[in-house]
Design a protein that fits this description.
- The protein is flat, with a radius of gyration of 21 Å.
- The chain has 2 domains: about 10-100 and about 160-180, Arc Repressor Mutant, subunit A (Orthogonal Bundle); about 105-145.
- It has helices at about 10-25, 30-35, 40-50, 50-75, 80-90, 95, 105-125, 125-145, 160-165.
- The chain has 9 helices and no strands.
- The protein is mainly alpha-helical.
């Protein structure tokens, strides 16, 4: 089963597998690797299929909710909560990872630059000056973004495979996708 780049859809079974994988906490890159397509192919399928995109968002939110529930329950009995915190920090580092004091996330920096651009547009009246300053800020933002660490895509074999998930007894996929392929 593969996803051909010229097609913008995934087979129903692939969509079900992606949904199950996301509902147990895998990310899109891992899910794409397991179902046999690239992350870009998966992104195209999500863009082309609104229903599938909605199901994927639901599956991702379900996984996050499960781990947030673990953190909530851990506050009651202080048992096994660190695993969920670890997962959340790595799944959504911009939202959950520890940051050094007085630092900005990329989205906070982007918001700041947008505000700065609006201030400059209000206070710099010459259109040529405005364009030069805004272009320079865009160039600086691009340099900052290029300096942020990124993960190479499609250069690794996923550690989790369909076979490794089957029969573990620890898999509780979101049933809305159907989990018969895990059996």
């Amino acid at each position: 089963m593969t996803c051909e780049s010229n097609l913008q859809t995934l087979a129903d079974e692939q969509q079900a597998q992606v949904g199950c994988l996301l509902s147990i906490g895998c990310d899109l890159e891992t899910a794409a690797g397991i179902v046999g397509c690239s992350r870009d192919d998966l992104q195209m399928a999500l863009t082309a299929d609104v229903k599938f995109a909605r199901q994927v968002r639901h599956a991702e939110a379900t996984a996050e909710r499960k781990h947030m529930q673990n953190v909530y329950n851990a506050a009651k009995d202080e048992k096994h909560w660190r695993a969920s915190v670890w997962w959340l920090e790595r799944r959504s580092p911009e939202r959950f990872a520890r940051r050094p004091p007085h630092t900005m996330t990329p989205s906070q920096l982007e918001s700041f630059l947008n505000i700065l651009i609006e201030v400059l547009r209000d206070d710099v009246h010459d259109p040529g000056d405005q364009q030069r300053v805004v272009a320079r800020l865009g160039q600086l933002a691009g340099n900052l973004e290029a300096g942020l660490p990124t993960r190479e895509r499609n250069q690794w074999e996923p550690a989790i495979t369909t076979e490794s998930l089957a029969g573990t007894g620890n898999v509780e996929p979101d049933d809305s996708f159907g989990s018969e392929w895990l059996e």
